[in-house]
Amino acid sequence: MTSLLRKKDINALISHASPLKRTLRTWDLTFLGIGAIIGTGIFVLTGKGALTAGPALSISFLIAALCCGFAGLCYAEFASMAPIAGSAYTYSYIAFGEIIAFIIGWDLILEYALSAATVAVGWSGYFVNLLDNFGIHIPTALTAAAGTTPGVTSYFNLPAFLVVLIITWVISMGITQTKRVNDTMVIVKLLVIILFIACTVWFIKPQNWHPFSPYGWYSHHNGTATGIIPGASIVFFSFIGFDSVSSSAEETINPSKTLPRGILLSLIISTILYFCMTLTMTGVVRYPVFRKYINAPVLAVLAKTGQSWLSIIVSIGAILGMTTVILVQLYGQSRISYSMSRDGLFPKFFGQVDEKHQTPFKGTWFFGIITSLGAGLINLNILSELVNIGTLTAFILVSAGILIMRYTQPDLHRGFKAPGVPFTPIISIIFCLTLVAGLNWETWVRFFVWLALGMALYFGYGRRHSHLNPNYKGAD
Amino acid sequence: MAYKNILVGIDGSKRAERAFETAVDLAKVFSAKLYLVWVVNRDRGMDSSFGVNEDFYQDFAKRTKKQLQIYLKKAQDKGADASATVIIGSIKTVLAYDFPDQHDIDLIVLGSTGINAVEKMLQGSHTDYVVRHAKADVLVVK
């Protein structure tokens, strides 16, 4: 049994490390965090969220932000335990052991594939609208997956499918984007959000906010979970990326003070933005209207106000921003499967690095094709729920790990210590569990199927081929 | 003026290979110290949740160290006073600012990059960047 928890030797990793310069202060961290947070969730999932919670979706954002705050502090301690740069998967291989590392890696594969697919579906929504504005019409059946909008027949999301394939090709060629391009995109997205709020806030009709919370905290409506908590479970996606602040402990000046401030400030600022955006959207349009605009909810508002010039700007901004997000997601996807393959937990296929392009070429295409099919075939109602459950599970494991390690290995090097242990990790776990509970049971079933597949792979393949297996005789 | 510390950027490509050979010859002529630098491009523009990219960079650097030893041996065999370094970071800033500042580099030798339109849009040419931003002289080997 102990072999399930066999651990990687930390010293083998440290020998290759180069220490980082401490240069980051509170505001550097805050901007880093905002840049990572302001992704595309707000452009994609507000519609599904508004249908789930009504105008009270704004409260859902607050709850999701609180969850991120506590989880972020725990992840910061976790990431600072290993004094070198590595992934959450590698850290947990050192700290918790093989099977937990496998589960975290397996969860992250799900997260990355699904978030790329989710964003691609949103990309398609805005892209189709942009083409419409220029008089080019794609047949409705090919603009969304089956079951996206009730009463509308659709089969396959062709633009989403194609954009994922194109970006997979870009990544497989070893092309990346620079920080400057990424920063520009963040600014584009911020400007689009602010412009949108400034231009549409005048059309708010307060009666649209009544009832403010049509489904309460948690209820069931037509067989799906509704209310503020299920809303938070969905819009949690809008904050993913906030952990980039957490993993900067080794580069931060005075991390014990600076890090919590950076996490707090970046969460507060992005939450204010999300809060205003949601109130504006649900104030201009009555929330059930979003059903018709599920893939591109912002356009529901602009159709109502009749500002088609603005809808062109928003669509272009959203498309540009989403393209880079898909790029980063698919890139991460190929790298996490690479890591697991390198350690023998996945077949070698995924870890083979192409000589010419210096990328895990085959793995990139394998998951790229699967993700493109997911983006084409799975509708946003399903994607929006599944995308968060892997991340939430990973945070639960990390928070629990922090709690346990404080007792089992109190003297271990920690570049940053989460304040308020044991309360912080416990609250983090409670928040994450609450958000998991807010998801529909179908989502849990799908997730357990995914986990069961993972366990089958682990016990059928990874456990025997693991490089930590005493019988493994491989060259490094 | 005679150059004292020469940096050559290596990335395994044919063009960089030519830059390497030129740099070795120059180092001998000037009796300069030659720094062979291979940067594993880790651009923060690709940062993502849970640090999933980091392992790849670390492994990449490990593999690169072995490859760079071949160049180092070649340079030393030819009689150049050479040393080899692998750095994980942004190619542009490492070659234009960080490494030259730390080692008093007065000449940077690079291969010209042949990049396509997509790359140009997303990342631009590394060589162009260094030519524009470095304080030291830059020699682009065609």
From TrEMBL, chain A:
Where does this chain mainly localize? membrane
Give the residue spans that cross the bilayer. 29-51, 57-76, 155-174, 186-204, 224-242, 263-289, 309-332, 365-383, 389-408, 420-438, 444-461
Taxonomy, superkingdom: Bacteria
Which residues, by range, are in coiled-coil regions?
A: none
Q: How does it sit in the membrane?
A: Multi-pass membrane protein
Keywords, in A-Z order: Membrane, Transmembrane, Transmembrane helix, Transport
What name is this protein filed under? Amino acid transporter
Taxonomic lineage of the native organism: Bacteria, Bacillati, Bacillota, Bacilli, Lactobacillales
TrEMBL record, chain B:
SUPFAM superfamilies per record? Adenine nucleotide alpha hydrolases-like
Keywords of the record, alphabetical order, are:
Cytoplasm
Q: Where in the cell is it found?
A: Cytoplasm
All residue ranges annotated as the UspA domain in the record: 3-142
Which CDD domains does the entry mention? USP-like
The entry sums up its family as follows:
Belongs to the universal stress protein A family.
Q: What is this protein called?
A: Universal stress protein
Please name the taxonomic classification of the source: Bacteria, Bacillati, Bacillota, Bacilli, Lactobacillales
